[in-house]
Amino acid sequence: MVRHRGWRRAAQIAMPRPSRHAPGFSSLRRIASLLLVPILAACSNGRSDDSKESGQPTAEVALDDGLINESSGLARSQRSSELLWTHNDSGGAAELYGIDLQGHHRVTLRISGALAVDWEDLSSYTSKGTPYLLIGDMGDNGAIRPVTTYYRIEEPAITPTDTLQTISVRPSAVYTLIYPDGPRDAESLAVDGQQNMAYVLSKRDAVPQLYRFGLDSSGPLALPRIMEALGPITIPRAPADYTGDVDAYNWPTAMDFDNSLRRVYVGTLLDGYFYDRADGESWAQALAHEPSRFDLPDYPQIEAGSFDRGSRDALYLTSEQLPTPLARLQP
Predict the structure, then answer these.
(1) pLDDT value for 91
(2) What is the domain extent for residue 95?
(3) pTM for the complete prediction?
């Protein structure tokens, strides 16, 4: 049976959203977060019958800071098993937010010199012993951006404290990229630290396309480089009895590689998919296999997901809503 949660997302899109710059908006946002936390907790403890078909998290909390109101990217820390990194969607500040597994906002990482046009995903990886975070400023709903930009920073070591920390860092590299076949909207980014290669999935194509670019050289003043097109991936199209938006059924909104570099997670608004990579296979070959599908939690606008550190079976997910849920899922 194909479930349809599109009505929730349609309602969310139809509702006018107040400007972040409106007077008092920050206070209202925080109040809304505090008021809704008990509601989310109640829902997680006693879900309606409609949720029986959705993925059941093994753990579920609400983030305690309404500043994180459109979590669009999520990456596990390469330094700590107790820390995740996230950021807001378009219109947000050029900042990353470090959250612990209990949903507490522990650190704000301000990226000096970076612009946040439409940050859509985030990937963590280790290359030659150094942990990095790669931020994808690659959202392009109208497919009109001539170039997209990616910011790489070295992941700082965080000493946990009871108070919120704010740290400023500068990118160690900036990558300006062009698609070889014209502008694309994309929300899915993953990095192979052994190859030192970043992989990107297009979102709004009928069949998502895979691209990649190297992370060895860059420069904010360099001429844009052309990404390498690797071809389509295999992902199910909407079944004949699907009553939602057929075109959007298989749009990828998140991607991640596990630490062993043997499994890929690809998430859409409704479903999750695992692709396994055999010895000697490329990522393009792995993503050409038929994936194993699993249900995601019944949240609106799921656009962020990351493997749990050291696991190939467990994921952390967030959703673009208030309060922002953080769910651990083990399909």
Answers:
(1) 83
(2) 6-329
(3) 0.85
